[in-house]
Structures are given as C-alpha cells and as structure tokens.
Amino acid sequence: MTTLIDSWEDIDSDEEVEDLVEEVSKEVVDPNKEKREALQKAIRNLNAFIFTNNEKLEDLKKSSKELLLNRKKTWFENNRPIQGHWLYWLFYKNYLVKFPEKDTIIVNGRSVFNRRGKYMIPEWKKKMIKKVYSWGKSTNTKSYTMEDLQNWYPTCMPAENFPRKDMLKLLGTTGAPAEQVKEYILFKWNEIKETVEIREKEIKEKIEATKLEVNNLKKELELLK
C-alpha cells in the first residue's frame, strides 16, 4: 500500500507537518472543485460560441458592403452600369450559395413555385460568366481586364479601369432582355437586404443572451473560489 511518507522520522519539523496536513486537507476537502471545472468549461464553450457568431456578423457586414445593401434603393435603381457589375459579382463570388433562391415566392399575393430562381437564374449565370470571360479575352486590355471585374466589387473599381459604356453591356450578357434582368437584380438585392437584416438581428440577440449567461456563470464561479 502506497503512503505519503514512509516514516514520521522523514519529516524534519513541526512546520513541515503543518504544511503536509494543509496540503492533504486541500486535496481531500474540496467539494466545489468539480463544479468549478464544469463552470469554467461551460464559460469557455460559450465564449467560443460568441466568437463564432461575431465571425458570422463580420461576414454579413462584408456581404452588405460588396452587395451595396447599405445604399439607398433609388440610387441602386437608377445606376444601370453598377447593376450589371452587381449581378456578375453575385454570380462569380457564389453569393447565390450564401443567399440561395427560395423554393417559392409571392406573386400577386399568392405563393408560387420560384421557376425563375430555380431554372432561369442558373442559366443566366452560366451564360454571363462564359460571355464575360470570352469578352474579356477579346477586349483591349487598356479598357479593362478580367481581374478588374473579379477583384473589384461594384463601386470599388476605379472608373478608368472599366468605362461606363462597357459596364452597361454587362446587363446583356445573360441572354435575357435587359429590363427583365434589371427587375431580377432589384428583386434579389431587396431580398438579400431583408435576409441580412434578419440574420444580423438574430445573431446579435444570440450574442447578447450568451454574454449574459457567461456573466452569470462567472458570478457563480466567483462564489465557489
């Protein structure tokens, strides 16, 4: 059987005896140890949850910036050159994965199958990406390059890199009538804007509720020390 010491003779002084008794007491009499460790683990997990949701908020802010969601609707409606670039950015940066087409949409007050979103838009995307790619290869690079469209989100690209007359052509690269394309762009811009606002509100509420829970656990932990 293993013992803490082989003999009392191994202890040099009364002070060492007191230290040993105190040390053993601490190891044996600590009913709150497991609870403290459980609270500390819970706090770490909750902080990780807060961190993850803050990252989600930052990603939504990036989406708002790149998709011009903070701009006024009237400004966006009247800016046709920007609309074409916006649609290209939506397709090229795979924003339709982050903000997919809904199965149903409301038309004249009725919920109907989103045929345009499920069938037409994927075809528009293929045609636009292909057209702009071939267009970029054949266009004088002094006018613009593919890198300009792919690296600069709408309104961020210098005007001299991509002239207005060239940007206007983007609306025609889907193969669909320009007005039909414009109507979809405005519809999708508004839909994404509403989605981002809802997601931001939900995430912020989760973060605040979690912070409150963390503070309560910290107070409980402090009482156990």
Order of helical and strand elements: HHHHHEEHHHH
- Overall pLDDT: 83
What is the structural class?
mainly alpha
The whole-angstrom Rg is 31 Å
Overall helicity? 55-70%
Measured by DSSP, the beta-strand proportion falls in under 5%
The total strand number stands at 2
Order of adjacent strands in the largest pleated sheet:
1-2
Shape: elongated
- How many DSSP helices? 9
| Low-pLDDT residue intervals, each spanning 5 or more residues | 4-8
* C-alpha termini separation: 33 Å
Q: Can you walk me through this structure?
A:
With about 220 residues, the protein is mainly alpha-helical. It is about 70% helix and about 5% strand. It has 9 helices and 2 strands; from the N terminus they run H-H-H-H-H-E-E-H-H-H-H. It has helices at about 15-30, 35-65, 75, 80-90, 95-100, 115-140, 145-150, 165-170, 180-225, and strands at about 105, 110-115. A two-stranded antiparallel sheet has the order 1-2. The longest helix is centred in the C-terminal third of the chain and has 46 residues, at about 180-225. It is elongated, with a radius of gyration of 31 Å. Mean pLDDT is about 85; it is low at about 5-10.
